[in-house]
Design goal:
mainly beta, 3 helices, Porin, 7% helix, globular
Length: 368
């Protein structure tokens, strides 16, 4: 089943994660000429502010899906990164439907940042052996999600801010036994609102395609009955990303991130955030992930990459010193520089996880 965190991450996968590594095509050098030549010279073509990107994914749980991301780029002031509003929609061969409306806004020389997301979807699931019960079960995960975060620069590369989320998540089942299992495990879904704080350190040299620098952020969400929820619980998240240029054509990127819960229902537990796995298929109260990727710029707009990572799911009597709670992923992929003026890429990855877990992805931007 998909958790609210899974839906959020799935929706953000095509929007938040845009770090790349390809250098923009070099600008034509200025030429000096006489007045007549200048008058007859063709004006430079202004880059289109529109984006239209196909998206593809395939994994054993959800099946194969196709979709699109359509976006519009605009600048609020010349010193800020381009803002964007985008619509992402996907449909799978298992009749899963997901739609997300996303906006990111930068202004005041990137010192003020706003991110907003609305997501809605439905995913049918068919299980031959549901949770080891021996039952053939069909379920449908339904989800509505809203998220808002504002960050304000306070000193140098440091930002502080606040965030809020609202989740309406539930599971329909066609089997009475499965319904009892879901109830026993606390996987019946929930409705809840949350507010929290966020802090960020961002020294990346480019918001879309960093060639150097670091990104650290830490945040929390306090889900409360007073905010329309059915249960009080808390989630905490921290991540660190580092981008290192190791040669003219090579970039090493790595990340370390964790998510922790306190008194959360199983539906809000942490999951695996690696390529090759379906979010929500494996759950535990807490998770920690380490992943690295090496990216090569081959020629013009093209590049390739290799990656590997590991996630530990722990808590509720699970520990990282037990190999059964460790999940690894390796893979290869490539990139195409879609919009040089904004350093935006399309990437594709083939990933292999433990056992039968694997995935194929074509997305807007990189995984991280």
């Amino acid at each position: 089943m998909f958790t609210p965190k899974q839906w959020q991450s799935l929706a953000l996968a095509c929007t938040f994660a845009i770090p790349g590594y390809l250098h923009a095509s070099s600008e034509a050098s200025n030429a000096e000429g006489d007045t007549a030549a200048a008058e007859t010279a063709a004006p430079a073509k202004k880059p289109s502010p529109w984006l239209l990107v196909p998206t593809v994914s395939s994994n054993p749980k959800v099946g194969s899906s196709v979709g699109f991301l359509g976006g519009y780029l605009y600048k609020i002031d010349p010193a800020s990164t381009s803002s964007m509003v985008a619509l992402n929609a996907t449909y799978s061969d298992t009749d899963a439907v997901i739609a997300s409306l996303f906006g990111r806004t930068y202004w005041d020389g990137d010192r003020k940042r706003l991110i907003a997301l609305l997501s809605n979807g439905k995913i049918p699931n068919d299980y031959d052996d549901y949770l080891g019960s021996g039952q053939e079960v069909s379920t449908t995960d339904n989800m509505k999600f809203a998220f808002l975060r504002y960050l304000h620069n306070i000193h140098s590369d440091w930002f502080i801010g606040a965030q809020a989320a609202y989740t309406n998540y539930f599971i329909d089942v066609d089997n009475a036994i499965a319904g009892e299992i879901l109830s026993e495990l606390g996987l019946a879904g929930y409705t809840s609102g949350a507010v929290g704080l966020a802090t960020t350190f961002d020294s990346r040299d480019n918001q879309n395609s960093p060639q150097a620098g670091m990104l650290f952020n830490a945040s929390n969400l306090a889900y409360r009955e007073s905010l329309g929820g059915e249960q009080d619980f808390d989630t905490y998240r921290a991540q660190f990303k580092h981008y290192i240029s190791v040669s003219k054509r090579g970039l090493l990127a790595y990340r370390v991130q964790g998510r922790w819960t306190d008194d959360a229902p199983a539906s809000a537990y942490s999951s695996i955030g690696l390529r090759g796995y379906t979010r929500g298929q494996y759950l535990a109260p807490n998770s920690t992930t380490i992943e690295g990727e090496y990216r090569w710029h081959l020629k013009e707009r093209f590049g390739i990459n290799v990656f590997a990572g590991v996630t530990c799911l722990y808590g509720d009597k699970k520990h990282c010193d037990d190999s059964e709670n460790l999940y690894t992923s390796v893979g290869v992929g490539g990139q195409y520089l879609l919009k040089p003026s904004e350093q935006i890429v399309i990437s594709f990855d083939i990933a292999k996880g433990e056992g039968e877990n694997h995935g194929l992805y074509v997305r807007f931007g990189h995984s991280f």
